[in-house]
Design goal:
mainly alpha; 0% strand; 59% helix; elongated; 161 residues
């Protein structure tokens, strides 16, 4: 997305007008499908982002995600850059995959299903980060010993701000 080369209908219509006679969005037909509309502007796809943001980080907003993916700019207050990247990349990839499955395989684009698939992958990444964090908290030989099981029983808060 950083290079604005997404094969959205506006771009395809420009280069292959016979194959793509219209630059309108195939989902909402409300607007020209440029890169922004492809990932964020379409009301159908925006539903995916809304579910993901409300589930994982209600304090974040779509404009900040858009800036990260299109400009590489993190919000100034962010101390969770890794999670910004995971959430943004996984959700954009889920939207991308579902879009092209609709185009090439006639699979319907169901916002709830796309959001659930993205959520599952995001949760796996977060669980991995927690495991790595917990393992890094285990004392080295000769240091104060804390039970690994006790560390696993602690439930870290995953609510991001």
């Amino acid at each position: 997305m950083l290079w604005d080369r997404t094969p959205a209908r506006k771009r395809l219509n420009l280069f292959i007008p016979r194959r793509f006679p219209s630059s309108s969005c195939i989902f909402c037909q409300d607007a020209t499908e440029d890169q922004y509309h492809f990932f964020f502007g379409c009301s159908i796809k925006r539903q995916v982002w809304n579910v993901i943001l409300s589930r994982f980080c209600p304090a974040w907003n779509l404009a900040e995600i858009c800036l990260l993916l299109t400009r590489g700019s993190f919000p100034p207050r962010s101390s969770h850059q890794g999670l910004w990247i995971i959430l943004s990349a996984v959700t954009a990839k889920a939207i991308w995959s579902a879009h092209w499955k609709f185009v090439f395989d006639d699979q319907p684009f169901l916002s709830g299903v796309v959001a659930q698939k993205a959520s599952t992958v995001i949760e796996k990444h977060i669980e991995f980060i927690i495991r790595i964090t917990l393992v890094s908290r285990i004392p080295k030989k000769g240091q104060f010993k804390m039970s690994y099981l006790r560390l696993l029983e602690e439930k870290p808060t995953l609510y991001l701000v």
